[in-house]
Automatic annotation (TrEMBL):
Domain of life: Eukaryota
Gene Ontology CC terms, in alphabetical order: Golgi apparatus
Localization (cell): Endomembrane system
Cofactor: Mn(2+)
Species in which this protein is naturally found: Toxocara canis
Region entry Disordered, spans: 1-53
Keywords for this protein: Disulfide bond, Glycoprotein, Glycosyltransferase, Manganese, Membrane, Metal-binding, Signal-anchor, Transferase, Transmembrane, Transmembrane helix
Biased composition (Basic and acidic residues): 26-48
Protein topology in the membrane: Single-pass type II membrane protein
Any one biological process term the GO annotation gives: protein O-linked glycosylation
Protein family membership: Belongs to the glycosyltransferase 2 family. GalNAc-T subfamily.
Name of the protein in its database record: Glycosyltransferase 2-like domain-containing protein
Keyword Metal-binding carried by entry: yes
Pfam families assigned to the protein according to its UniProt record, in alphabetical order: Glycos_transf_2 (PF00535)
Length: 414
């Protein structure tokens, strides 16, 4: 398709990510969305993100790790409203954001998730977000069969007076399609995707929404912190908060991160300002609902998990948008030890027990769909790294090709 796009296209365009005049840094003056009071501490284990250490050989711990992929035995000891350490750069406290920010629908996809990690995700969003900016939290159940995610969940969320909603799939759809289902149900201006085992940090929301208010075609991505799967300790992943890493990929389409370029660093007046990134990890981000809809949400032909971050990243950049990583928005995330559940009709097997098995089963076909639709002649480099992909069919991509033409998207070379 590269021949359909002119040489030098977009050469005189200004890339998304220029400074927002509505967002103002005031040295020494606490930002307008900064909390006015200290975090309340419950007196329970794990406050301020401290680790909770137990014998990992306890039968209860072993059962929890096997069933959920992380230590829910410890998670149950920790308050759903626990305090977290403020891991942001000091500069972040002095940004003043527009009051008329777009509203957000937070979409959380889950399948057989542990109770306390899922509910702590919900509680942290409600606890650390300006209420008028949260239109709703949509919990999308991808055909769970655990009892605590049925009537108990429906009864529990009634306390939130309609702010928290549950949408249930009638059959297993996989992460990618289920996210699109959640976005379709969203009524907020912006859709924010979180995984089902997260904790948002101090003043996480306005920094994500402000760039989208300035440019509706920008996707924003928070800094992802780590929550330990064994102890539930909350900590930075990237060391010092003032070191910034952008998402990149190598030709085998494996996600990597590297420090931002000197050019990008010089472009910004303050080190805490958002910076451009070619791609993102895929799990946590914000995007305007209408823009996501115009982009066709995720490609519905992508199976279960894998490659969706490239499909969306390429689509955004090539079709007139951009991706910004936001240093002043932090979200903690628990990484599992293994994938603890199967995929029903999607897998062809009763259980896919490891993340590696999941990737190898779906990765190649998903990637071939992405490169056939978006990468033009550059797809040849992927086949060098993954020669077996040459024999994989992408399936019917006519709708994706038509979308690219309809949106007048640029070439991959651009």
């Amino acid at each position: 398709m590269a021949e359909n796009y002119a040489e030098g296209e977009g050469a005189n365009e200004e890339l998304p990510g220029v400074a927002d005049p509505g967002t103002v840094f005031k040295e020494g003056e606490l930002g307008n969305f900064e909390p006015k009071e200290e975090q309340q501490r419950s007196g329970e284990h794990g406050e301020m993100g401290e680790p909770v250490n137990v014998d990992l050989d306890l039968p209860e711990v072993r059962r929890a790790m096997n069933e959920f992929g992380f230590n829910t035995y410890v998670s149950e000891m920790i308050s759903l409203n626990r305090s977290v350490p403020d891991v942001r750069m000091e500069e972040c406290k002095y940004w003043h954001y527009p009051e008329d920010l777009p509203t957000a629908s937070v979409v959380i996809v889950f399948h057989n998730e542990g109770w306390s990690p899922l509910m702590r995700t919900v509680h942290s969003v409600l606890l650390r977000s300006p209420p008028y900016l949260i239109k709703e939290i949509i919990l999308v159940d991808d055909f769970s069969d655990k009892g605590h995610l049925k009537d108990r969940l429906d009864k529990y969320i009634k306390q939130f007076n309609g702010k928290v909603k549950v949408v249930r799939n009638s059959e297993r759809e996989g992460l990618i399609r289920t996210r699109s289902i959640g976005a379709e149900h969203a009524s907020g201006d912006v859709v924010i995707f979180l995984d089902a085992h997260c904790e948002v940090n101090i003043n996480w929301l306005p920094p994500l929404l402000a760039p989208i208010r300035h440019n509706r075609k920008v996707m924003t991505v928070p800094v992802i912190d780590g929550i330990d799967m064994h102890t539930w300790a909350y900590r930075r992943v990237y060391g010092s908060a003032d070191r910034h890493f952008r998402g990149i990929f190598e030709w085998g389409l494996l996600y990597k991160e590297t420090e931002i370029t000197k050019e990008e660093a010089r472009r910004r007046k303050y080190n805490s300002q958002p910076f451009r990134s070619p791609t993102h990890a895929g799990g946590l981000f914000a995007i305007e609902k209408k823009w996501f809809e115009e982009l066709g949400y995720y490609d519905p032909g992508l199976q279960i998990w894998g490659g969706e971050q490239y499909e969306l990243s390429f689509k955004i950049w090539q079709c007139g948008g951009g991706i910004l990583f936001v240093p002043c928005s932090h979200v903690g995330h628990v990484y599992r030890s293994h994938m603890p559940y199967g995929f029903g009709k999607l897998s062809g097997k009763p259980v896919i027990s490891t993340l590696y098995s999941l990737i190898r089963r779906n990765f190649l076909q998903n990637m071939v769909r992405v490169i056939k639709t978006w990468m033009d002649g550059y797809g040849k480099y992927y086949y060098i790294r993954e020669p077996s992909a040459k024999h994989r069919s992408p399936g019917d991509i006519s709708a994706q090709v038509a979308l690219r033409e309809r949106l007048h998207c640029k070439s991959f070379k651009w």
